Amino acid sequence: MITIDDIRAAATRLEGRIRRTPTWHVPQTTYGGSPPFDLYLKLEYLQLTGSFKPRGAFNRVLSAGAPLHGLVTSSGGNHGIAVAAVGRTLGLPVAIPLPATVAPEKLAAMRELGAEAEVVGPTFLVSNARAKEIAAERDYLYIHPFAEPAGIAGQGTVGLEILDQLPDVDIVVVAVGGGGLLGGVAAAIKEQRPGVTIVGVEPLGADALSRSLEAGRLVTLSKIDTRAATLAPPMTEQINLDLAQRYVNRMVRVTDEQMVQAARWLWQRFFIGAELGGAASTAALLSGLVPVVPGQKVVSIVCGGGTAGMAPTG
After folding, report:
1. Of 20, 53, 111, nearest to 305 (Cα)?
2. SS3 call for 173
3. CB burial class (10 A; 0-12, 13-18, 19+) of residue 20?
4. How confident is the model over 117-137, as pLDDT tens digits?
5. Were 282 and a residue from 25, 127, 212, 262 both cysteine, which residue would form a disulfide, CB within 3.0 to 4.6 Å?
6. What single DSSP character describes residue 231?
7. Are residues 238 and 176 in the same domain?
8. What are phi and psi of 10, to 5 degrees?
9. Distance between start and end Cα atoms, the chain
10. Rounded distance, CA 113 to CA 82, Å?
11. Domain count, the chain
């Protein structure tokens, strides 16, 4: 388990390394009248590298202590890009073995940041095993995409900022891949304001945390069926399950189409360029999957930027 002190220490460690992103109030006129609740968007897509991930990656590296010879991780998405950026900033070599599912633009971004990024197998299970081998072979620091305490504490700084920017928030809605962002944000907020409702959102076809919570144990998915690649690991880990069991009030699942519609809504109304995973929490709210009492203040974390869903309808 991480503590609020861990998250506060991460915030201090990250000063000058990351951006403090805004929590923006959606104008009421957007709904064509009075909205059923006050919606705020935590614009974490404006973070370095376009997602929340540098928070955890920087905190993991800066808290490692011993002199480092390099960094290694396995992630076909925003975590890999964040680790590449951290390595470049700190002058450390970075290796990123990848699954075949990596999007070409994500692979290109890692390489542009100087990382040694190569596809090594069909799935994350294969590429992550290779990352651990490289860590042993080269004496590199291995950085898990979502299941290390220091990484989760770094992601939890998003929650500290939300409470600072909107102290009377009622509900916070968080997209879930492996669960690192959800666990960190939930711990940061619940340890200070236990009455805030925390809602996690997974794609219908990549719902490992929801299934694990329902089963009371870790569940590995036999297949992934979603276009939201940044929210699609086949499993979570025990620390993420423990944090969700302790702090999260509700999990909901959204379809790819609901995420596409939410991404289009964000782009067409506000020119907010969210990838599908970044639009997942807003999709849950727009689809009515999160119970909200009129007048409540609700924060949706737009956790990653991209181009999916920006095309006009029709």
Report:
1. 53
2. strand
3. middle
4. 999 999 888 999 999 999 999
5. 262
6. G
7. yes
8. -65, -40
9. 48
10. 9
11. 2
- Residue scoring higher pLDDT (27 or 213): 213
Structure tokens at 196: 């805030």
DSSP, res 311:
S
Which has the minimum average pLDDT: 31-40, 69-78, 82-91, 149-158? 31-40
Query: Quick one: which H or E segment has residue 211?
Result: helix 208-215
Last residue of a domain, one of 112, 139, 166: 139
Residue with tokens 């964000």, as numbered in its chain: 266
Q: What is the pLDDT of residue 33?
A: 45
- pLDDT (tens digit per residue) in 240-258: 999 999 999 999 999 999 9
Give Cβ neighbours of residue 214 (< 8 Å, ≥ 6 apart): none
SS3 174: strand
Domain span at residue 135 reads 69-139
Q: From CA 46, how far away is CA 273, in angstroms rounded?
A: 10
Dihedral, CA of residue 161, residue 162, residue 167 and residue 169, to nearest 10: -170
Radius of gyration of the chain (CA): 18
Return the DSSP state at 256: H
